[in-house]
User: Fold Tautomerase from Marinomonas primoryensis.
Amino acid sequence: MPYVNIKITREGVTQDQKSALIKGVTDLLKEVLGKSPATTFVVINEVDLEDWGIGGLPVEEYRKTLDKP
Amino acid sequence: MPYVNIKITREGVTQDQKSALIKGVTDLLKEVLGKSPATTFVVINEVDLEDWGIGGLPVEEYRKTLDKP
Amino acid sequence: MPYVNIKITREGVTQDQKSALIKGVTDLLKEVLGKSPATTFVVINEVDLEDWGIGGLPVEEYRKTLDKP
Amino acid sequence: MPYVNIKITREGVTQDQKSALIKGVTDLLKEVLGKSPATTFVVINEVDLEDWGIGGLPVEEYRKTLDKP
Amino acid sequence: MPYVNIKITREGVTQDQKSALIKGVTDLLKEVLGKSPATTFVVINEVDLEDWGIGGLPVEEYRKTLDKP
Amino acid sequence: MPYVNIKITREGVTQDQKSALIKGVTDLLKEVLGKSPATTFVVINEVDLEDWGIGGLPVEEYRKTLDKP
Assistant:
């Protein structure tokens, strides 16, 4: 009875993409560990860009530093 | 000083129901483990139906499969 | 299909107490929100005292500050 | 930069199976959302059977109820 | 590659304050443990007041009990 | 009443370093948001290297790929 939590930045992820994540993770747990899909939970959290930090900066500012040549 | 996180699907849970969850969990931790309510945190997360998967499907689609005779 | 995570300090919690927490939380979610126990997950994490901070100190040191008259 | 947390019961999962979970989830996020593996974190938590509840019971007791004819 | 999750009540936290939290936590992990900022994630969750309980009550009600002389 | 969870790889972190993390995060929340230390929780989780993935690999294998000239 696995519980999987996927946190991603909120950037226009579609319902179809979410369904694909849910199906893919559930299939993976069945294949690798034999877990039953009926008791496999997948919870997706979209996190606003200003709430996700990397490199000591909010994501959008961090990305700008990577674009610099 | 317990920390309890309750994740449920977002389906019209009322403020009164949330208060009942907070009180119920806090009372339980006091009764079973003697934990002080003053340092017991309860955080409720409502998760959109499209963000919760079970059986390899988003919740709403999964429920449809259960209704089939 | 709720998911509940209970974090408590590791201080000799017994199997019976854990069972009481699992049953209590599951019953609460059924009573308040009508959630089915068959799809209610409860995960308990015991956290070592040195890994839990409050008041800017590890729990054990914090408790000593409270004992001071 | 996704963060994925996989919680499973502690029941003899091997290092190879863990590697397969890490690779599978990372590949999935690349395929579905185009996320870079270099900033995709996967954290696996194995949870002791007595710490995981379903149906209002610790997992092992719950499974016994399912075996009854 | 640390992952830090900060949960706070939703009460008008500004973008600048969020940036200060992200920078502060990332710097701390570098200073104390030598962790690289490039692989340090910080995720902030603002939680609605009605979804956060302490003392067996939602935060706002709890605060009223503290104001009583 | 913030709740902060710090996840790091298990690689010989000392009690003093943990205390420094707890103090640093609690001070930061007080300075930036005026949060009271008495209701600020910090929970540290050390994660075994085989349970943390990045780049589609467990941490130790991933690090080997970085060492290659």
Remarks:
- The CA atoms of residues 46 and 58 of chain B lie 15 Å apart.
- Chain B has a mean pLDDT of 96.
